[in-house]
Amino acid sequence: MLKKFIILICISLGLGFFTKSIGLSSHQALAISIFSVSILGTLFFWDFRLGFTFIGISILLITRTIDLENMIKSASVEVILFLVGMMVIVGLLKSSGFFAWIVSLILRVRNFTANKFFLLICVISSLMACAIDEVTSIIFIVAAILEICDYFEVDPVPFLIVAVLSTNIGSSGTALGNPIGILIAAKSGLTFEDFLVRAFPLMLLSLGLTIFIVRFWYRNELSELDRKIKELGQNEILVRLISVPPERELKISLGIFGATLFFISLHHRLELLWGLEANTILLTMPLISSGCLMIWKWQRARDYIEKDVEWWTLLFFMLLFAQAGTLKYTGATDVLARNLAGLAGNSLSVLIGMVLWISTIGSSILDNVVLVAAFIPVIQSFQSLNLNLHPLWWALLFGGCFGGNITLVGSTANIVALGILEKEKKVRITFFRWFWVGLTVGLSTTLLVWLALLFLPIYH
Amino acid sequence: MKVKEIMTKNVTSISADANAREALDLLEKKQISGLPVVDSGDKLVGMFTEKDILSYILPSYIDKVGKFIYEENPKSTRRKFSELSKMKVSQLMRKEVVTIGEDTTLCEVARVMLTQKARRLPVLDKTGRMTGIVARCDVLKAMFEEAKAAANAQPL
User: Fold this and answer.
1) One-character DSSP codes across B20-73
2) Contact B91/A at CB under 8 A
3) pLDDT at residue A460 above 90?
4) Which residues, numbered 37 to 76 in chain A, qualify as contacts with chain B under a Cβ-Cβ cut-off of 8 Å?
5) Of residues A139, A142, A242, nearest to B68 (C-beta)
6) pLDDT tens across A83-114, in order?
7) Looking at A23-37, A41-55, A64-78, A279-293, which range is the least confident one?
8) B144 in A contact zone (CB under 8 Å)
9) ipTM more than 0.85?
10) B70 shares contact with chain A (CB less than 8 Å)
């Protein structure tokens, strides 16, 4: 612990002095130094990271590196409120039995075969990650996988890895799948429709490629499951294992969720129609829906806010965004953007590759929200260099989501799934058991995205 | 009245290295719902309760998946029951245990039980050695007796 603390202080101080010595101002160097503490905090001191950001932002304010008004502006309260609204809606879906209903659907598949199960978990994992969020989605997919693998007495690890890989890929399909999606949507001016037209098809292509790779990778495990199905018979007990009370509440919850998705997907058109500021409907729709459901379920309203909203994570995000905003406010990201553009010879194609691969490799080690929060002001600074930003935003989105597949700590979905596996089956996956398949999928899907961003005009 | 006056003194306890299956049998034999886990010097190191066994037997994700009804017992419950005989008490016990001192008053014990949602509390002496255990029903009974005695002594 002490050793890690010393490393953290040395790196952040070293980075501050280094950036100062190469000509950055004191405020720019301090902003970089403090942001590096947040990055290292997520790497080495997960439980301390909120404490670090509290102190970090206070130092930035006291040293006048940023003023209060700009700090609040950079904290992206609109994104935080959007996430709060979505978490409340997910809380309602959870308590109404929606997720249990999805699990029961998977358990009740007719004419159960290994291939069918395999395809089902890939497709459901990715689509659910698109529509809800990757962390919630992976919990019930893992629940279904563990029940099925337990029943057929096969190793759940390959199926669990496949589900997580599909979840991370699926989370890039819409602005709802991953916090970085809504963050990019809010900062880039890209609409939900842009995500549906540009990100979703590319996500599906990447999913297809992933299915092809993992189907080959785990061919022996699939044959083993098929053999067990023949030996133990079909999934009769699984069909009867759980039931979801057919309550009115589930139908109403689904209605509220469906309506929210519908209005979110039309947000740009409605904003144009009603002359509203960009993203007003996108960001307020979850608030309207969660507001209505808190009036409907007023007795549980406090529970939704206190138990279903992850304040610990959201407060960290808010202060992290404020720290990233300080990088922009002090002009540190302009310097970085100029240097990056200089390194790329002011070529957009080279910059696309740089943003895509840096974010892919970076998010395989770091929390992708930290990485994307730091990258957003850099990409915004490219505007002053008269560069087309659209392909760079897509590169950041796909890199941030797909990089999570490379290592077993690459994304929150990986950590949640492996945590359940360890608790339930006492199995701890080794780094390399994940790494080789994760790296193959991560590199091939990122390569696919790279080619699409370079050659398809729709992304420019 | 102090808790040391009403606590059960001869407490059945178990060691952290004991077999979990044997501990479960002991719970059944003694008709109790929990056992304090102590080291060789009688220092409390945890609590092994029926609740801990149940939460191990059922899948850990049930509270996250939401509302549903089990129509059958999942295969994993059988497997987990058979795994109990290979596990140690230390793997299942709760390590963070709320405790009280011997001189704690009954009202304070009741307050701790209510706020910490505890059904029973181990009682420790000043050196940290477990000297007894007090259950919710013992506290309630003693408080009732105390109130009755006070009412008899000072009739309204």
Assistant:
1) HHHHHHHHHHHT-SEEEEE-TTSBEEEEEEHHHHHHHHS-TTHHHH-S-EESS-
2) no
3) no
4) none
5) A242
6) 999 999 999 988 888 888 888 888 888 888 89
7) A41-55
8) no
9) no
10) yes
Neighbours of A291 (CB within 10 A): 14
Name the burial class of residue B96, with classes exposed (0-12), middle (13-18) and buried (19+) by CB atoms within 10 angstroms of its CB: exposed
| Cα dihedral A83, A86, A91, A94 sign | negative
Please give the order of strands across the beta sheet that includes B34-38.
B14-15, B34-38, B44-49
Per DSSP, the three-state class of B11 is: coil
Chain B residues near residue A140 by CB distance under 8 angstroms: 61, 64-65
Structural domains for chain B? 3-153 (3.10.580.10)
Give the mean model confidence (pLDDT) for residues B26-46: 91
CB A368 within 8 A of CB A325: no
**What's residue A140's pLDDT?**
86
Chain centroid offset of residue A274 CA: 31
Sort out which chain A residues have CB atoms less than 8 A from B71's CB and list them. 240-243
| Minimal Cβ distance to B72: which of A93, A143, A237 | A237
Residue B22 has a CB neighbour count (10 Å cut-off) of 13
The pLDDT value recorded for residue A39 is: 86
CB-defined contacts A:B, below 8 A = 72
Amino acid at A261: L
The fraction of chain A above a pLDDT of 70, given in percent, is 100
Identity of the residue in B61, B67, B74 whose CB atom sits nearest the CB atom of A150: B74
pLDDT at B152: 85
Q: What does DSSP say about strands B44-49 and B34-38: parallel, antiparallel, or unpaired? A: antiparallel
In this prediction, residue B155 carries a pLDDT of: 61
Lowest mean pLDDT among A129-133, A239-243, B27-31: A239-243
What is the model's pTM?
A: 0.89
Measured between alpha carbons, how far is A147 from B87 in angstroms, rounded to an integer?
22
Dist. CA A105–CA A111, nearest whole Å: 13
Q: For residue B156, is pLDDT > 80?
A: no
Tokens matching residue A55: 């102190």
